[in-house]
């Protein structure tokens, strides 16, 4: 038994936020730490600069995704820990890209390759090209960054390498089922996502019908629209659900950072609406289609992709350390853009839970 025990925030009005395991760096964070150290070394050997301009980190043309901000933010955070500040006018500029790739040694394996180019903008000289790869240890992060759909309902007792091999197959042929307004990975999936939209930020929130575009779910959103996510959990267990928008975790701006959650809790055989970015235990800001937030943290992110991605990952969750029989022996999970709309109030409290493996990941794309 190696599922991860953690905590949940639960609100009086059914808002539930899950805290991540304390003191555990993700595989992505570890790679960003390594990249930040290498960048610091380049700065020291090329004039002793102590600031950089972090530009776009773009994704592949297929499958289309817009997860650059989700890579920029941890890189900026790790650079800050090394006393390297970010400044748009800095002499040293960093740009990059990310791509899902195969492994030359094992063609079944799915890797996510992140490459950063470091250049002196005044001279045009390339100072370094840095590359890191995420492997099966970062299966969940690969799903979120690539914005892929994943159906792992038949792999809940599999080890990470086997799950990784299955993810590679599903990246090439995405599992997708559209059922009226719901987006699922398969016809009999018990998890689903709907998008509710308030056009122009006025009137009622109404469900938007998604379209299947080359195996990807798309919805039409316009600048000024406000949206919510309706999460469906038709299983007999609670669901711990992560929400990632343009590669940025929904809880990125939650304060205080030391209490920052990682998941929403959805009760068994029910559904719940996610109103926006949680900012604290007291509430948050609506999901608004427009520019990114005016906050200092969000201003640091460079987003020029014309595509938006919303990725929702479902995990079973339960009280206590002993899992239900079906999860015995499983491993745990670990130009417009969506910005901040109006503030909303929502009180929350803390609950203990254990998280099971990722079972379903649904990605919905929208044109900006």
Q: Any overview of this molecule?
A:
This protein has 368 residues and is of the alpha+beta class. It has one domain. The chain is 16% helix and 43% strand. It contains 5 helices and 25 strands. The chain has helices at residues 27-45, 68-81, 139-146, 160-172, 296-299; strands spanning 4-10, 16-19, 51-58, 85-86, 92-103, 106-120, 126-134, 150-151, 177-179, 182-184, 191-198, 206-207, 211-213, 216-220, 226-233, 238-245, 248-249, 263-266, 270-274, 276-280, 283-290, 307-318, 337-345, 349-355, 360-367. Strands 11, 12, 15, 19, 20, 21 and 23 form a 7-stranded antiparallel β-sheet that branches. Strands 1-2-18-16-22-24 form a 6-stranded antiparallel beta barrel. Strand 1 and strand 2 (16-19) form a beta hairpin. The longest helix is centred in the N-terminal third of the chain and has 19 residues, at 27-45. The protein starts with a strand and ends with a strand.
List keywords for this structure.
5 helices, six-stranded antiparallel β-barrel, globular, 368 residues, seven-stranded antiparallel beta sheet, 43% strand
Could you estimate the helical fraction of the residues in percent?
10-25%
Q: What's the overall average pLDDT, rounded?
A: 85
Specify the biggest β-sheet.
7 strands, antiparallel
End-to-end gap: 43 Å
CA radius of gyration: 20 Å
Write a brief structural summary:
With 368 residues, the protein is an alpha+beta fold.
């Amino acid at each position: 038994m190696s599922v991860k025990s953690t905590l949940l925030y639960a609100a009086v009005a059914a808002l539930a936020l899950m805290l991540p395991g304390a003191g555990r760096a993700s595989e992505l964070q570890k790679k960003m730490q390594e990249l930040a150290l290498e960048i610091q070394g380049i700065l020291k050997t090329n004039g002793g600069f102590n600031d950089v301009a972090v530009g776009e980190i773009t994704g592949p043309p297929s499958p289309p995704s817009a997860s650059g901000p989700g890579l920029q933010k941890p890189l900026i955070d790790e650079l800050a820990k090394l006393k390297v500040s970010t400044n748009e006018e800095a002499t040293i500029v960093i740009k990059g890209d990310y791509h899902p790739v195969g492994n030359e040694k094992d063609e079944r394996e799915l890797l996510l390759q992140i490459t950063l180019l470091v250049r002196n903008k005044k001279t045009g000289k390339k100072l370094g090209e840095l590359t890191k790869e995420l492997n099966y240890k970062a299966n969940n992060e690969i799903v979120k960054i690539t914005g892929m759909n994943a159906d792992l309902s038949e792999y809940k007792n599999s080890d990470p390498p086997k799950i990784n091999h299955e993810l590679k197959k599903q990246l090439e042929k995405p599992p997708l089922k559209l059922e009226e307004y719901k987006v699922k990975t398969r016809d009999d999936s018990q998890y689903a996502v709907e998008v509710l939209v308030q056009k122009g930020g006025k009137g009622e929130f109404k469900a938007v019908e998604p379209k299947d575009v080359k195996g990807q779910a798309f919805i039409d959103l316009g600048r000024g629209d406000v949206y919510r996510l309706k999460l469906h959990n038709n299983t007999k267990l609670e669901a711990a659900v992560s929400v990632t928008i343009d590669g940025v975790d929904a809880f990125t701006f939650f304060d205080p950072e030391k209490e920052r959650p990682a998941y929403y809790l959805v009760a068994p055989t029910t559904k719940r609406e996610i109103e926006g970015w949680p900012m604290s235990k007291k509430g948050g800001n609506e999901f608004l289609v427009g520019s990114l937030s005016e906050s200092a943290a969000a201003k640091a992110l460079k987003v020029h992709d014309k595509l938006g991605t919303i990725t929702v990952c479902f995990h079973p969750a339960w009280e206590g350390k002993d899992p239900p029989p079906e999860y015995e022996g499983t491993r745990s999970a670990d130009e417009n853009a969506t910005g901040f709309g109006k503030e909303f109030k929502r009180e929350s409290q803390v609950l203990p839970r254990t998280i099971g493996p990722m079972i379903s990941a649904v990605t919905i794309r929208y044109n900006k």
